[in-house]
Design brief:
By secondary structure, this protein is an alpha+beta fold. It has one domain. The protein has two helices and three strands. Strands 2-1-3 form a three-stranded antiparallel β-sheet, covered by helices on one side. Helix 1 packs across helix 2. The radius of gyration is 10 Å and the shape is globular. 9% of the residues are buried.
């Protein structure tokens, strides 16, 4: 299971938890959250910084 920490451009934490928990906090579907993670990782979306860890 992966846990995510999302930061905004000012390095403030905006969501922490599983994909489902983070998606709920951001008012989006879990599938859209996974797409956003991919866009952040490939540099297309620079609105957020995402750190993930496997537990």
């Amino acid at each position: 299971m992966f846990y995510y920490t999302l930061y905004n451009k000012n390095d403030e934490v905006i969501a922490v938890g599983t994909a489902h928990e983070c998606a709920k906090k951001l008012a989006m579907s879990t599938q859209y959250f996974y797409c956003m993670v991919g866009r952040v990782r490939n540099g297309t979306n620079q609105k957020y910084k995402i750190v993930s860890e496997h537990k």
